[in-house]
Each structure stands twice: as C-alpha cells, then as structure tokens.
Specification:
The complex is a heterodimer. Chain A is of the alpha/beta class. Chain A is built from 7 helices and 10 strands. Helices cover 32% and strands 28% of the residues of chain A. In chain A, helix 3 packs parallel to helix 5 and helix 4 packs across helix 5. Chain B contains 14 helices and 11 strands. In chain B, strands 1, 2, 3, 4, 5, 6, 7, 8, 9, 10 and 11 form an 11-stranded mixed sheet that branches. Classes of the chains: A alpha/beta, B alpha+beta. At the A-B interface, helix 2 of A face helix 1, helix 10 and helix 14 of B.
C-alpha cells in the first residue's frame, strides 16, 4: 500500500455478533484525491465499508490503512485523532443539533481538534460561506430547508479541512434538485485535493463520479478500475 | 481552500483533544437544548439544598439574635451568692457585703436582693396559701433594674415612697401567673395578710430568669413586716468591662472576708453564651430530611441522564465520528450532570436564604446565612451531580458509534 493511497483495505472481513457477515474478503484502494461512488443494494455492505474506512469500526480480519497509516495496531485514541483531524463525515440524517445555530453546529465539527471556540467559529463562518450559507449563520436547523441542512452538515465535515470525506447517502433525505446541488458542492469542495468516498443507490449520482465501486452481498463485484 | 494535505503533521498533533473550556461549552449547550427538563431535574437538588440552607440559616439567625441580646445586656454582670458549707448547710452572706462590694474599684454598681422565705403572694385572701404559683418574695433596693439591665413592662420600680408604704413590683412571670400584667387599676395582692399595691411589672430579666418569678418589696417594709433584717441572697455586680475577671476574683473575699469559700461568684452571660452555642447546633432531623431530598434529587438526575443517553444516541454517534474518544463522551455527560446539580444547588441556596429571611423578619431576628454555605452548597451540588452522572456517562461512552448513528 503506497502512501499515495488515502484509503486501502486488504482482505477485510467484518462479522457481527450472531454470525452476520457484512463484508467478506474485501480489498480495495483509493488514491489520494480520488472521488469514488459506492453503489449496491441495501444490505450489500456499503455502510459497513464506510464505517471501517472511517475508523468507527475495526474489521474482524484483514488490514486497513487510512491516510497512509496502517491501523492494525492503532489505539482507540489514535483512531479518534484520525477522525478528529483527517476524516469528515456526511450522513443521510444530517445529525445536526437542534438547539445550536448553523454556525455552532459547524463549530462543533472541530470540537475534538482542541481548537478554541473563537478559532472554531471563524473557521465555521468561512466554511458556511463556501457552502453558500453566509446569510444563515444564526439560524437553527428547524429554520432551514433540507438542502440547507445538508449543506450545514457538509460545512461541518469540511471546516477542519479533512484529507478524506466519507458521505453516506447524503441526498437520501433530499428532493432531486437539492440533491443535485449537494452532490455538485461535494465534488467542488473535494476537488481541492481531498479524497471523497460517497455511498449512493442512485445511478445518476454515481454517474457523476469518475470511479464507481459496486458491491453485492458483502463483496466488491466491480472496483471501478 | 488551500491544500488539504498536511504531510508535516507529527503524530502527536493528530490526537483528539477536548480542552476544559470546550468541554464546558459543549456541556452547557447540552443543557440549554433541554431547558425545561434540566430545570425539573435540578428541582430535587434545589429543594434538598434549600432545606439544609434554611435549617442552618434559621439556627444561625436565632443564635445571632441571642448573641446580640448578650451584647445588649453586657457580659460584665457578676452575681454573688452564698454557697454551701462543708457540711451541706447554706452559708450566709454578711449584711455588709453589698456595701463592701460597692466600694471596690472597677465596680460600677451593685444591687442585692433578699429572699424572704416565709413570704406568700396571693391574688386574694380566699386563695389557699399553699397555691403560691411558685412566686417568691424578695426585698430589693431601688437600683436593681438598672444593675440587671432590665426595663419595666408597665408602672415603675420601687422608690422612696415604697420604703414606707406597702407597694410591690412583680417579675414578668409572677405577673403572668397572677394575671396582673397591666398596672393602673390599683391592683392589690395579699402578701402574708397585708394588702400590697402593685406599682410595676418588670420585663423578663434575661441574665437571671429567677427574678421573673419574684415579687419585690422594699427592704424597710420587709423589715417591718417580718421583724428582722434579712440577709442578702444574691448580689448583682456590674464591673468595668475590661476588669470583669479581676473583679470576679476579688468578689468572694470582699463579700465575706472571714469565709470566702462560702461565696459563689458566677457570670450569668456565660450561661447565655452556652445557650447561644446550643441554638447554633442544627436540628439533626431537619438536616436529615434535607439529605433525603438531596438523595432523591440525585437519583432523579441519574434517571434523567440515563434517558438522555438513550435519546441522544445519534448525537453520541456523531461526536464519536467527529473524533470524540469514549472519555470525551463520558466527560461531557458527567459535566452536564454536575453542572445541572450545581445550578440546582445555587437555586436551593436562594430558596434557603429566602426562607431564612422570612423567618428572620417574622421573628424580628437578624438574617444570617453562614458564608461557608455559599461555597459548600454549589460545590456539594457539583459533586452530587458528578456521582449521579457516573453511570449514565459510562453508558454513553460504551455505546457503539455505528449503532448510535443508525439509531
């Protein structure tokens, strides 16, 4: 696995308690700066793949390397550090905090980097400006449209300038117009050099990606290369 | 955006960190997003702390009141009384004792009372003479109230006229027993078969409450009535404030130079101070009730936090995805719980102080809440909250981030 690979899995399997096999002997590498769509039916292992790439879960077998670091011997502390500094997540359900303004929701994205509030807010302001929400800083999630909420979530993932962006069905809760805008935004922001891995079951969205990985029953049936 | 790659980062810079100020910020946001629930769950702690603060405050106020009373009455009053002899008989103070003491340096004034053991005060002659109501009869000099620091509830004390005519002054309790609390209607009492006019009623003598149960007549009248000059049964002495101990040491020898050991000298304010100290002790039962309320409050907070962990699974998963370590998640829940209880305790402090203020105003006592309560209450609340939050915090930290995100 070369350092040019932002993400690399080698012979990775994931079994859950009760014997469910979510991933079976998956090997795949994503080069730094690549933009990859992962497609497949429900239960094909897409989300499990993403949580393992995002260091939220460890594989049952196989090796993982993220940002050029093999994770086999990494402590939970090191994995949390990787997530805090180098990985940005975007979820289908947004996971915004209702009580916080858009600005503070984005600032929370950098909470575990050790940066102070003033610093985090200024980065958050910049990130919201980039996603076109400079006029929505003090709005709460309930005052925003679905598309705007997802853009706040994208700003939260990107404000710390991560090397890797992992998005799980980010358009799943949006209408097609807002969905298209969100995908364009992700392409644009990741175009600055970040590696983007996005899960979708929408072929039209997958088609906008230069590389598409297709999964079925916990295995990669087409790695898009 | 500039380059996103950071090849110059060292591994130590890659650790997830949560500075204390940021932890406090996140915890306050957590509480702010559930204001009503936070307020309700802090109520238990507020009631517990409030009960305890008001118990401490009320007893401190009562104590401060007594101490103020002692200050007003003065601590420079000494009493001289006959003691008991070696064989158990009551000694006798010489009739010259009052004059001798009055001549001492650093003694401002001295007044004696003379107990008339055979005196009986009755409302009318038709009352059986056994029913004295515990009222004793003393002969007294006209400067007694002044030396005792006591004032009159009505009428006036014995004066020169009283030396010739049968006039009586009643102590506060004696007047109450005889139901003669107001003077002015030529009220009479029957004293050993002679009608005496009541010319005054005293207020309670806080420094020696035995005087309250007493009827006072003048010394010349007593001598005429009982046919003998009585011996002083108690001499009250006011010394200079700075020489109380010195005067006290000399009193016995001055009162009875031939037998100083037969004289007992006491300082009545010492007994009052002991009473004040006793009032300062909190009522254990009420403190116990406060502690029970605190315990219930703590359980309430633990309960709410456990529910909160379940409700906030998505948020917990998100935090883990954002780089929070397990310890960061548990620290946040612990801090929220501790802050909640500390805020409840501060509210309780206000409640308790308010209750104390109402009591103090109603009782005409000074308002006192000990300063240590201002520190101990919030700190105690914080600790109780931290303990109550321990289990929910551990539960939150153990949650799998992926499961939480799917929830």
């Amino acid at each position: 696995m070369s350092a040019a690979h932002a993400l690399a899995l080698d012979g990775v399997s994931k079994q859950y308690a009760g014997g469910v096999t979510a991933l079976h002997d998956v090997s795949v590498a994503v080069a730094t700066g690549d933009q990859v769509a992962v497609t497949g039916a429900s239960g094909s292992g897409k989300t499990t793949l993403l949580t393992i790439l995002g260091t939220l879960e460890r594989p049952t077998a196989g090796t993982v390397s993220v940002a050029g670091r093999p994770l086999t011997d990494a402590s939970d502390r090191n994995l949390a550090g990787l997530r805090a500094h180098r990985i940005g997540f975007v979820f289908q359900a947004f996971h915004l905090q209702e009580a916080l303004t858009a600005l503070d929701n984005v600032a929370t994205g950098m909470l575990y980097t050790g940066r102070h509030l003033r610093d985090r807010r200024s980065a958050a302001r910049e990130a919201l400006d980039r996603v076109g929400l400079a006029h929505r800083l003090s709005h709460r999630p309930t005052q925003l449209s679905g598309g705007e909420r997802q853009r706040v979530a994208i700003a939260r993932a990107l404000a710390k300038r991560p090397e890797i962006i992992l998005a799980d069905e980010p358009t799943g809760n949006l209408d097609s117009h807002a969905g298209t805008q969100v995908i364009e935004l992700l392409h644009e922001l990741a175009g600055d050099g970040a590696t983007l891995v996005l899960i979708t079951h929408d072929p039209a969205i997958a088609a906008t990606f230069p590389r598409q990985i297709h999964m079925r029953d916990g295995e990669i049936v087409d790695d898009g290369l | 955006m500039t380059s996103l790659a950071h090849p110059d980062r060292t591994p130590s810079e890659d650790l997830a960190r949560l500075p204390l100020a940021e932890l406090a910020w996140a915890s306050l946001q957590g509480l702010r997003s559930r204001k009503l629930r936070a307020a309700l769950s802090a109520l238990g702690i507020a009631i517990g702390i409030g009960a305890m603060v008001s118990v401490v405050g009320v007893s401190s106020s009562a104590q401060a009141n007594l101490l103020a009373e002692i200050d007003r009455l003065g601590t420079n009053l000494l009493t001289v009384a006959p003691g008991q002899s070696f064989t158990g008989n009551t000694e006798v103070l010489p009739t010259t004792a009052t004059r001798m003491i009055g001549g001492m340096s650093h003694v401002r004034s001295a007044a004696a009372v003379y107990q008339l053991t055979t005196g009986v005060v009755l409302r009318t002659p038709y009352v059986p003479s056994e029913e004295t109501g515990g009222i004793g009869v003393d002969a007294a000099q006209d400067d007694l109230p002044e030396v005792m620091g006591t004032t009159m509830a009505s009428g006036h004390f014995l004066d020169r006229v009283s030396n010739r005519y049968p006039e009586v002054v009643l102590g506060a309790q004696a007047a109450q027993t005889l139901e003669l609390e107001q003077v002015g209607h030529h009220l009479m009492v029957d004293l050993n078969g002679t009608w005496f006019t009541v010319i005054g009623v005293m207020r309670s003598a806080a420094l020696d409450t035995t005087l309250d149960d007493t009827a006072f007549i003048s010394l010349p009248v007593a001598e005429r009535l009982f046919g003998q000059q009585p011996d002083p049964s108690e001499i009250y002495v006011r010394s200079d404030q700075d020489d109380v101990i010195g005067v006290s040491n000399l009193l016995a020898a001055t009162a009875n130079p031939q037998d100083p050991s037969g004289v007992v000298v006491t300082r009545p304010s010492d007994a009052l101070k002991a009473r004040a100290a006793a009032k300062g002790q909190f009522t254990t039962l009420l403190l116990g009730l406060g502690a029970v309320a605190l315990l219930v409050g703590a359980i309430g907070i633990a309960n709410i936090m456990v529910i909160s962990v379940l409700e906030r699974r998505g948020e917990i998963g998100l935090r883990r995805a954002l780089g929070a370590r397990r310890i960061h998640v548990s620290a946040q829940f612990l801090t929220e719980s501790a802050l909640l209880a500390a805020l409840g305790a501060i509210a309780g402090l206000g409640l308790g102080a308010g209750a104390t203020a109402i009591y103090a105003v109603a009782q005409h006592e000074p308002f006192v809440v000990p300063t240590y309560a201002l520190i101990v209450a919030p700190l105690g609340g914080f600790l109780i909250g931290a303990i109550a939050g321990l289990y929910p915090a551990m539960k939150a930290a153990r949650l799998s981030p992926t499961e939480a995100l799917r929830a």
